[in-house]
Amino acid sequence: MTKPVVVGVDGSPSSMEAVEAAAREAERCGTGLRLVHAFGWPSGRVPPGVPPWNPAAAGVREMVDGTVTRAEERAREVAPNLEIAREVTVGEPLMVLEIESRTASLVVVGSRGLGAFGTLLLGSTAVHLAAHARCPVLVVRGRPDPAAPVLLAVDGSPAGERAVEFAFAEASLRGVGLLAVHVWNTWTDGAYQGPGDPLNVMVDLEHLREAEQRLLDETLEPWEKRWPQVAVDRRLVRARVRSTLIEASQEAQLVVVGARGHGGFTGLLLGSVSQALLHHAACPVAVVRGEA
Questions:
Q1: Residue 209 DSSP label
Q2: Rounded CA gap, 38 and 61, in Å?
Q3: SS3 at position 235
Q4: Can you count the helices (H) and strands (E) in the chain?
Q5: Contact, 255 vs 129, CB < 8 A?
Q6: pLDDT tens-digit profile of 144-172?
Q7: Which of 25, 222, 228, 232 has the most neighbouring CB atoms within 10 Å?
Q8: Distance between the two ends of the chain, CA-based, in angstroms?
Q9: CB 271 within 8 A of CB 259
């Protein structure tokens, strides 16, 4: 892997946690770390006499340099020998990170922050980044147990193949097992997950359960052969998808989910399960887009 790991930096505690996570990831992958700080004038107000494209003239540059320097120091505490690059630019952070994702192996952000980066999990901005980034996006949240497994949300869709590959690779790099969970119900093949799982729906539940088990097995088997060192715990669960995966995240150090699941509203770039995990998972969440 030669593409760097990119992390959004703003100096907040959440951002510093993201820096640590990104440094560990870059070290595991044997690649470099790129610290990115993007800023603009609050509400478009520019101090008198200062060109809007030159905030350094107003003393902002010194403040930003201090923030990035502290981030680099934190990264080196985690990985002293890591190759680290800096990028400080004027621009809207979401757009800057989306552009950075085109040449990155992974983009890492915190779940809360200061300034513009602080909106990354408020409203639709995190959803937009996870849906449009050209590489996987890792949102650092919760208090993960480093000895816990990687949790993979298996949906069996073609778009989810890259998420499966990413999860196996992460489990291998971290030296832990993989918990592969496939949640099904009588709405599995529908256009959306309904409010419940009514038992009066005329379906052959045993036949459906067997089909979902085959889907889980067929999804995992090719990757188990490629990564035989990764111990896999397969779980087929009949329940509501979002709440089940959020609960399962409590026993994981990382959740990996595809941007879009099987079925659903195909025009959306990020599914409701991914969005729910981004906001409510008990550990970091990696959203992996399938092939365009």
A1: H
A2: 11
A3: strand
A4: 8, 10
A5: no
A6: 899 999 999 999 888 889 999 999 999 99
A7: 25
A8: 21
A9: yes
